[in-house]
Amino acid sequence: MPDDPETGPAMTGWLTFAGIFALFFATHSIPVRPPVKRQIVRHVGPRGFTIGYSILSLVMLALLIWGADRAPFVLVWGEAPWHRPIVWAGMFAACLILAATIGRPNPFSFGGRNDQAFDPENPGLIGYMRHPLLIVLALWAGLHVLGNGDLAHVLLFGTLTLFALLGFRIVDMRKKRILGPETWARLLSQTRAARHVGMPSRDTLLRIAAGVVGYLILVALHPVVIGQPVFL
What we know:
Layout (H helix, E strand, L loop, with lengths): L6 H23 L4 H37 L12 H19 L30 H16 L3 H29 L1 H13 L8 H24 L7
Helix pairs in contact: 1-2, 3-4, 3-7, 4-5, 5-6
């Protein structure tokens, strides 16, 4: 029985995708292990580690998407008329959350700045979500599962969604260990008690405006970088 000429390239595509996936998890787990991280920070400093790790994460994400695009196309589900509006709205919300919270003091999660300045009596969105950056990642990945129904992209974005959701518990455990369980619980209780809806501050309004601009930039760049327009 003659060999299928499609088998070789298909297998190569899947192996490439799997190899990049393995490398992605290695680069996201090894550098943040306390002994390894301490060694890296000692040589490049905290800021250098943050910048380097961010660049590495973006490069690996780009490689993952590249690998998924080159894997064999196996349809899991087709696109429904309601998929795109949900993706548009969800990504708009993700951009607003990211703009409103990135770089702000947040002792509960990673990615905050000057965490000791966090005010539990005025927590803003942190009163409603301890891990806004992980929520943004889960939203982005989960929405792209919905909008990309082929097997490779379902595996890619589905795994990243699960990765973000599991991160909630992992970061909680790490922060409890760093802060101490009693301090962590007291901060959480104070933060939840201070939740309220009021007039946003000038800084919050500026961040919201930045989120809107960021969303429009993503829409404009999507057909250039990804090859597909957002709105059809």
